[in-house]
Protein 1
Amino acid sequence: MTGSVTAILLAGARPIPDPLAAAAGVAVKPLVPVGGEPMINRPARALLDHPAIGQVVILTQRPDLLAADSATGWLAAHPRVRFETGGQGIASSLLALLEAGDLPFPILLTTADHVLLDRAMLDQFVDEATGADIAVAMVERETLLARYPGSRRTWLKFRDGWWSGANIFWFGSDKARSVIALWQEVEQDRKKGWKILAAFGPFALLGALLRILTLRGGIARIGRKFGLTARLVAMASPEACIDADKPEDVTLIETILQRG
């Protein structure tokens, strides 16, 4: 799969000032310094350095700010990087890019605040997601707390554990469009797990509430509902679900980076 995966790096700017950006005195969150450089640089390099990744599409409302900044200007000059101007929603922006017809599958999507993204995470995710129409990376709570007992995440409980998102997604074929369209409908409620589950039908919602579904089984069942193969990738690296979302996250990430 050398160079065959299209990577999308989400570098959105909120319509309201981001607290991390405001505290750091920068215009948008992807420019917030983490470990001595804008947070977007590390996941961008991880993607560009991985042999499976071909082009990297940076989706942002403010490509001008990233291109003009001396620390991130290299992205605008890189031959395998292109900027696309996103709208207010991730899913609607993705659908627009797909409609344009120049975004080849498979697609790996991740975020500019995934500062700890590295080769090992990408190796596992690409290997396990390949062949699926949709895949999502998650970290089970015990995996995280075994190494970072003080880390606080948002967890969803299922029969096979408590799970938190790792901000890495896979769209393996054009069949993924139907799920992206549904994502567009519930995007404003993406932090509210039960509303997302409800969108997939009453059985999925009831199953989660009664804890009778495993997450793996639930994702596979949702895939079948849409006529596609959907897969959970349970990440081995606890760092996969640590993103730079709050000041305490940045502190933890910088500690991890200092340890190498």
Protein 2
Amino acid sequence: MKRGVQAGILAAVVMLSTGAASEMTVGEFLAGMKKAESMGPAALLSSDVRALRAESDRVRELYVADITRQKKAGGKMHSCPPASDRPKMTGEELRQYLSSLPPSAQKKPFRVAVYDLMKKKFPCK
């Protein structure tokens, strides 16, 4: 019984910590990038940079999982990246895209913006 309660609490914490409410917005991501750029080489040791990298990695893993699931299901694809399933994108390319978004779009989750970019960069033909 005690293990069941502990497992339930752990599951709730995981769900709360990865839920949509905790997602970084485009504006927050851009602000973090600007801050990191202003720090120069010291940015490599910054917790801000680690947070940006963690968010980028999280979104990339979500995207790859979604694309893989869509391929297996055989239905409509969100976007069609190269066969490697590990689409490449430079930090500069991402920064330019995010910076080009209007202020209203910078309030949306970073994840949504990345998915939009992938759809634009790798359209299904």
Protein 3
Amino acid sequence: MKGKEWYKADDVAEEYDSKRFSRGGRLIDRREKGAVLDALSPVDGKRVLEIACGTGRFSVTLAERGADVVGLDISRAMLTQGRQKAHEAGVADHISFLLGDAARLPFPDNYFDAVFAMRFFHLADTPAKFLAEMARVSKGQVFFDTFNDFSTRVVYNWLLPMGSHLYSREDVERLVEGAGLSLATESHDFVVPYGVYRKIPGAIASDIRSVDTAVGDTSVGERLASVSYWNAEVPELDGEAVERASEAE
């Protein structure tokens, strides 16, 4: 089963968090949430859109810190999990979960302070269209991650052929430029691919992570990183565009 079809299955949604973010996967969860918070903070009072929100891991984390969040996803089952998670965290009044297509976002231009997507672009069949839509509805910031083509992720893709798309830096630069964005900051991580961490106990994963981080802090390790986080900026609006954005609110 290919990526998108697999992702939308009901049984996948029910087990998604427990299979990926338990055991050594907790390290991945912490790192990803940290990357999002580092990029978007401070989030208190911000209007934020999450593309491919899944079970709401990031949406709930941002809502707990005062953001007003819209989470959009193509999977009804994932959205059900997200609503339950938001209710349990007491932030359901700060999150709206919507079923929708990221290539045709149902929002006006410049509507959100920030738009982000995690674990999305490796499954995106039309990445340029998706990023352009994210840029269109953001008036400040677009943040996303990619899986990289010069990394151990290549082996993982070969062993588990789910149709994941791997990106070079040049690919990302073309996407960012094509969407009318400018790249502000970037970071690169996980020489050891996600799949290894998910299969081992937390204590062992912590030791591996220490080595992974030490290697990743070198120029060679950065080049071999399997994941990159890209923080892009939307060009400043002119006076007329600012007025239109204010009217849309």
